[in-house]
Specification:
The structure holds two protein chains of two kinds. Chain A is α/β, with parallel strands linked by helices. Helices cover 35% and strands 12% of the residues of chain A. By secondary structure, chain B is α+β, with helices and mostly antiparallel strands. Chain B has five helices and eleven strands. In chain B, the strands form three sheets. A six-stranded antiparallel beta sheet of chain B has the order 3-4-5-11-10-7. In chain B, strands 6-8-9 form a three-stranded antiparallel beta sheet. The radius of gyration of chain B is 16 Å and the shape is globular. The chains are: A alpha/beta, B alpha+beta. The interface between A and B is medium-sized, with 34 and 34 residues. Strand 10 of chain A pairs parallel with strand 9 of chain B.
């Protein structure tokens, strides 16, 4: 009887070293009689209608998830797809102290009793380290079941459909950390593209993820709780990195206060690149509106 | 007559930042990095202009990385400010020697928001400050600076 399910989500790109590591971890786990392991497509690009998601939802019992994303992003992307559980503690990476503080007060709605451990494959490029961490989790499970009766058994479909249905396109949308979100609705007010909505219980949800403008993480910056993640954003604080403080998300006005030329040049280049991307991606906003939005943002 | 006229048209210029009216007293001059200055003999007092304060919003942290008595060159980094919205390094507005920091603003930076042109002053230095602008000139400069500021804000918001 399998005691622990392990899902390895493939990296979004074609990096052979990453794919090799995914394969190596899967191979290393194949010989463990207590582990049921499978490979799945890139987590963030999955859609609710994908066959892979249906397979993942049918997995019961304790679950370890490995992906090329921050653990917090993994957890809440799964949650969004209806694959829910309590966040398991891993020893490869310390939890965000911000979340430690909140653990008692905030439990996510609909959190189920099972535990999901999320591991960031970028934390270590050594296959053995990840495998050792999975074995540690397994030992802990054994210790618990020795005290409290048999562990919950695991069901895992023999094959998780590798390809999402239809054409696989890289997606871009916000993921809400419901452990932090307090339904203040700032994002709902701020987003001009109707990405957010309110569910029947009055909680803010990502209602129309495909309305989101690729590359734009602005709602994440205005969120007072730092609860909006863009798992693929290059800025760690926005992608869900632990320990990223609110301060890291503040505007840097040094340039306006006389920062030296090199900084000005870099910023000018960056802004030019951004303006080019914006021309394609979305119509230019009224700049006054932006200032009003800043007024209301209460960062 | 004179007094009544002053009440209607106070001695300040106004620059509109969106819907916000930033006010600039005409009894002092202004620098490119958005400080005001008032000279008294050899000593020149500096503070943040209403434009800078509006961009920062509530200032709740101020620190200086040089000591009083330090000789500085224009654009040397001398400190940092943090607000509800932003962080920013502060740079020396001119060549000279910083003689005194405002202990009141250092202890309670909210003085910068409450009275940025008075009790919220930042530091005094001996400086010629020859390239400081008259208020009307500063307002013209703000028109270009404002566009740049909005681009910077927009860029960072959408980054």
């Amino acid at each position: 009887m399998k005691k622990l399910a392990v899902i390895i989500f493939r990296s979004p790109g074609q990096d052979p070293r990453k794919h090799e590591m995914e394969e190596n971890i899967l191979a290393a786990l194949a010989s463990d009689p207590d582990v049921a392991a499978a490979m799945a497509p890139h987590l963030y690009d999955l859609r609710e209608a994908d066959a892979a998601v249906a397979s993942l939802r049918s997995v019961t019992g304790p679950l370890v998830v490995l992906a090329w994303l921050y653990p917090r992003a993994i957890h809440w992307t799964l949650d969004r797809l209806g694959i829910k559980g309590q966040r398991g503690e891993t020893q490869l990476r310390r939890d965000d102290p911000e979340d430690e503080k909140r653990k008692d007060s905030a439990s996510a709605p609909n959190a189920s009793a099972r535990t999901i451990w999320s591991l960031d494959l970028r934390d270590n490029d050594d296959t053995a380290t990840h495998v050792a961490e999975i074995q540690r989790i397994l030992r802990d499970l054994h210790a618990v079941s020795a005290n409290a009766g048999p562990a919950a058994s695991v069901t895992l479909p023999s094959v998780i459909r590798m390809q999402p249905s239809g054409v696989s396109l890289s997606r871009w949308y916000p993921v809400i950390d419901f452990g932090r979100c307090n339904d203040c609705m700032e994002c709902l007010d701020f987003c001009l593209f109707g990405v957010y909505g309110v569910d029947d219980d009055g909680h803010v949800v990502v209602e129309s993820p495909d309305n989101c403008k690729k590359g734009c993480p602005a709602c994440s910056r205005v969120c007072p709780q730092n609860a909006i993640l863009f798992p693929m954003h290059r800025t760690p604080a926005i992608a869900g990195a632990p320990g990223a403080s609110f301060d890291a998300r503040k505007l840097d006005l040094s340039e306006l206060f006389g920062a030296p030329a090199a900084v000005q040049l870099a910023a000018a280049e960056r802004n030019a690149a951004l303006a080019g991307a914006e021309k394609e991606a979305k119509p230019r906003d009224n700049l006054d509106k932006l200032m009003d939005a800043l007024d209301d943002a209460k960062l | 007559m004179d007094l009544a006229r002053r009440c209607i048209m106070p001695d300040e210029l106004v620059f509109m930042m969106g819907n916000f009216a930033a006010r600039f007293p005409t009894d002092r001059r202004y620098t490119l990095n958005h400080m005001w200055l008032n000279a008294e003999g050899d000593s020149v007092r500096f503070g943040l202009s209403a434009y800078a304060i509006r961009l920062l919003r509530e200032v709740y942290f101020l620190e200086w990385s040089v000591d009083a008595g330090a000789a500085v060159r224009q654009k040397d980094e001398i400190g940092a400010v943090e607000s509800s919205k932003a962080v920013a390094a502060l740079y020396a507005p001119a060549d000279g020697t910083i003689t005194r920091f405002n202990a009141g603003a250092l202890a309670d930076p909210s003085a910068i928001n409450k009275d940025g042109y008075g009790a919220g002053w930042l530091f005094e230095m001996t400086a010629r400050a020859a390239d400081a602008m008259e208020p009307a000139e500063y307002l013209k400069y703000l028109e270009t600076s404002w566009t740049k500021a909005q681009e910077l804000l927009k860029g960072q918001m959408a980054q």
